[in-house]
Amino acid sequence: MKTKFYALVAAVILTAGTISAQSKTYVNVSLQGGYVANSEQDKKIGIGGTVAIMQQDFLFNAEKNYLTLTIKGFNNPILDGKFITSILNEERDCFNYVAPMLGYRMTTGSAANGFYVEPRVGYAFLASPGKAFLVAPQVGYAFNGFDVALFGDLGFSGKPKVAGPENFYTVGLSIGYNIGL
Fold this sequence. Notes:
ten-stranded antiparallel beta sheet, elongated
């Protein structure tokens, strides 16, 4: 599992280096807050964040749209879990996941200004043993580079999680900034 994770990190770094030389590229850094809506434990707020590379879509000549490559981390403590100490500890006091995702951002203006819808798909690596296919839509608004969005992470795995059910549904708010390269 660690080998796959390091291979993924290397791929993201190499991809970032390749597309950053092109024009119309942005890096989005965001903080997120939300909760696992179908948790059987409790409804504590979780926190996380994303780093995304957005490249203008030249393939379909869609100047307002962007291909996205995103890495997301999310920590939702449950029971007696705490935000920092529950990350990757041996207790079953949190629901954590890291997810690489591919997406397509459709905007009314640009990555830095306007409304957008961004469907994303990925694969969530869970801290409690397991993996999940992830569908993660996001709807938001960007103004002068600042980005506010509502997100939903729908994970499908087939195995029960520390939060309870086999599948999980995380909903929340994302606040970030788009940096033009």
